Amino acid sequence: MSLLELKNVSKNFGGLKAVHQVSFSLERGEILGIIGPNGAGKTTLFNTLTGFYKPDEGEIWFEGERLVGLKPHQICKKGMVRTFQIVKPFLELTTLENVVIAALNRTELIREATEKALQTIEMVGLKDKAETLATGLTLPHRKRLELARALATEPKLLLLDEVMAGLTPTEVEELIRLLKEINRRGMTILMIEHVMQGVMALSKRVVVLNYGEKIAEGVPQEVVKNRQVIDAYLGEEFGNASN
Amino acid sequence: MKKLYLFLLVAFVALLVLPKFLSSYALGIFIMIFFYAYLGQSWNILTGYTGVISLGHSLYVGIGAYMTYLLTLTLGLSPWIGMWIGGLTAGLIGLVIGFFGFRFGLKGVYFVLLTISFAEIGRLIVLHLKVFGSFQGLFITPHFSAANFQFKENVPYYYIALGYVIFSMVVVRLLERSKIGRYMIALREEEEAAESLGVNVFKYKMIAIFISAWMTSLAGAFYTNYLYYLHPGTMMSMAFSIEIILRPIIGGMGTVLGPVIGSFLITPLAEISRTYFAKAGYEGLHLVIYGFLLVAVVLFFPRGVISYIKKALSSLLGG
Amino acid sequence: MIALGLSLIFGVMRVINFAHGEMMVWGMYVAYTILLWTGVDPFFSFLVSAVILFILGYLLQKAVVNRILDFPEAMQVLPLVGMAMVFENSARLIWGPDYISPQSRFALSSLSLGPLTIDTPRLMAFSIAILITLLVLVFLKKTDMGKSIRAAADNRLGAFLVGTDVNKVYAVCFGIGTACVGSAGGLLVPIMPLSPYIGAPFTLISFIIVILGGMGSLTGAMIGGFIIGVAESIGPELITNIFHAFGLDLDFPHTMKQVVSFFILIVILILRPQGLFGGRKG
Question: How far is A109 from chain B (nearest CA, A)?
């Protein structure tokens, strides 16, 4: 049984088909990349998967259970957690406090949650920032915080929304290493990514979205040679150039 | 941090012995300080910590006050018992308001207007009920006894009010460190992120409003048995709601000491300027000053006085 | 028309002017003072009220409102509430706490239109209000400043980027909003007794109207105003009749008419917060 399965998922906004009949599945332990030009519906897909939107059409199964109709916090309890493209740290709290809140997903005890939080913070490399207020963190650190929070909820599936955006190549390399390690320990990852370096290095498979529809799926090396995919991205470039 | 606890301990002891040295009038001011500090703290739970803004908290005070009165009147129930029933009622009403607001995703301004509406409807209903004195309000004849929560002098009220404040501070402090409180703070900071991390938004907002409403209404019993006069025009009005929120905002929302400091700053000012200016024939002037003060503080101390105190203290004491 | 002013202010700047009602009361007092000093009837002097309130509003916006535009809502409420207190109590200090009912030339006269008798002050107030509303609408649609205001309402950053002096626009807008309210005040002088404390209910009612009609929708404000006006007038009787029909020996007193409006507000907030004509939600 696949860990995650989507069948004909659609989400419309008024007349706009943000996501249209998207189907794919994800196996345990995989890293699947979702790529596509801006506005292709990737984040909308995430929002639909995590219960922030209700799909107009289609089914979503997580470990064989239907997800459609569940609220985001319930989906988190089931083991699927996401990060946000524009990071949303709890600014008035310290790094540690941020992650403790996430860790409380699995326990009622503050002590346990704090332990778990500290472990997670160490894993993502924020140990010396544990007592820093989130407002005082740089963007790359905030991204790690976002990741740490997600990990602290003890998910089975991690949904990353452009987690590498805005990072320098060195920072991207570090993050790639971190994600590989997390995956090695058994985490399944679904990542929306624009930074090709990350996609190629991490994804076992890739799904390409354009205008809300899936236009290609497969191993990264092949997908980038796909005619339609190239058109979609070039179209974006040419479109921008001629404006 | 340790220094803070030491300071608080000293302050507490000082407050304990203060009544020996103060006149009844001065005690009265302190009572008001404590009263408003408590109210502000109760409101703080919903707004300062959970981020849900309410401008209708006077409703809960009214519920607490009128219910304890009613229970004493009809069942001869001591306010000490009646206030918990009143508290429960207020909490339930809070849940109703919360239900309408949270279930339908009302936020910010819209939720504020919802709270105002309920408070105003409550006020208008009470205003028309004969059992509560209708337009004239209710004068209560005191039967002084501890069981009745009615005392001849200010001293017992002082200690009771102080007790209220300590109680509220303990509650808030416990909340701050508990799962519930942390979830509430998460909701205030980033609701969506909190939700995606497993926080049941509806549930925790409802918990917050219940606790806040319940606690606020407990002060109603105090009000009834201290002032001996109930009128929805004062007690369930928007003006009172504004007074309630004034002190925590100036002192610092979302902190344990904020409402208390705010009350220590504002209440004496309000009380003294009111009497002073009234005597000088400029009644209402104190409110003009109040108004300007409000504007000035929000413009220049938006995080509340306490954040500046913290900064000042930490640089003075080296952390 | 009061609601019109408020709608303008909220729609453009997303700030709740809690001082709205109190500023209106100032408008009333200005007109009254003019009446007292010069004998000029409020139906003309309301223009002076409008001008003075415009200036007050403009200044208020520049001094206070502009700085709080980005504050969280709890903090936005306070300064304006503070200003409301200032207006209310300074009015008290200047003009005294008691009710005043100035006499206007038209005050007691009334017009007969077939089977209806309408008293002149209300009729005049009504017509002038409509006139002003139309003027404001025209202003917003046709003039440059008007267009700037609408642009700034839609997209503050965008308007800024194309060179609009956003601060000035906001100030003018606020000023117009308060001018509306000032005129309303002037026009109301012949109709109701005047006291420093009558502002608050007006603030609240105008909020209800604005939400009902839709924030930022000026037609909405007009229609909302109409609906609320009707609801408050006939609501209590209607409800009393319903009570009696069900066998309840309960009367819904006229002094509780605001409950009707608040109830409508609650319903609207729950079902359609953007109001009847509002565009965006929230």
Answer: 8
Greater confidence, B252 or C223?
B252
The CA distance from C227 to C221, in Å, is 10
Q: Are B210 and B55 in contact (CB under 8 A)?
A: no
Closest Cα of chain B to A54: distance in Å? 15
On whether residue B19 sits in a domain, the answer given is no
Average pLDDT, rounded, for chain C: 65
Alpha carbon distance B83, B78 (integer Å): 8
Which subunits have 3 or more CB–CB pairs within 8 Å of chain A? B
Q: What is the mean pLDDT of residues C235-256?
A: 75
Q: Say yes or no to pLDDT of B222 above 80.
A: yes
Would you call B120 and C263 a contact, using CB atoms and an 8 Å cutoff?
no
By residue range, what is the domain housing residue B297? 25-317
Domain count, chain B: 1
Q: Which of B 133-162 lie inside 8 A of A, CB atoms?
A: none
Q: With contact defined as beta carbons under 8 Å apart, do B120 and C266 qualify? A: no
Nearest C-alpha neighbor of B61 from the set B318, B245, B284, B308: B245
Higher-confidence position of B76 and C193: B76
Return the higher-pLDDT residue of B245 and C230: B245
Q: Neighbouring chains of C at 3+ CB pairs within 8 Å?
A: B
Question: In chain C, whose CA is at the least distance from the CA of B238?
Answer: C200
Which residue does chain C place closest to B54, by CA atoms? C74
Give pLDDT tens digits for A109-153: 999 999 999 999 999 989 998 899 998 999 889 999 999 999 999
Question: How confident is the prediction for chain A on average, in pLDDT?
Answer: 89
Which residues on C lie below 8 Å from B126 (Cβ)?
A: none
pLDDT over 50 at C224, yes or no:
yes
- Chain A residues closer than 8 Å to B198 by CB: 73, 76-77, 81, 102, 104-105, 153
> Contact at 8 Å (CB) between A89 and A146?
yes
C106 vs C138, residue with greater confidence: C138
A149 touches chain B (CB under 8 A): yes
Q: Is residue B4 part of a domain?
A: no
| Residue B1 belongs to some domain of the structure | no
Of A111, A102, A48, the C-alpha closest to A77 is A102
pLDDT at B132: 76
The radius of gyration of chain A's CA atoms, rounded to the nearest angstrom, is 18
* Residue C165 pLDDT: 62
Of the candidates C73, C85, C269, the beta carbon closest to that of B290 is on C85
- Residue A99 near residue A145, CB atoms below 8 Å: yes
User: So where are chain A's domains?
Assistant: 88-154
Within 8 A by CB and 6+ apart from A54, the residues are: A48, A68, A69
Q: What is the mean pLDDT of residues B121-137?
A: 81
Main-chain dihedrals φ then ψ at residue A191, nearest 5 degrees = -125, 130
- Give the minimum alpha-carbon distance from B283 to chain C in angstroms, rounded to a whole number: 7
The pLDDT of residue C14 is 43
Instruction: Please compute, for residue B145, the number of CA atoms within 13 A of its CA located in the half-sphere on the CB side.
Output: 6
pLDDT category of residue A41 using cuts at 50, 70 and 90: confident
Is the CB of B310 inside 8 Å of chain A's CB atoms? no
List the CATH number of the domain containing B280.
1.10.3470
> How high is the pLDDT of residue C144?
63
Whether B130 is in a domain gets the answer yes
- CA atoms of A158 and A148, how far apart (whole Å): 11
Q: Which residues of A touch B185 (CB under 8 A)?
A: 90, 92-93, 101
CA distance C57 to chain B (A): 15
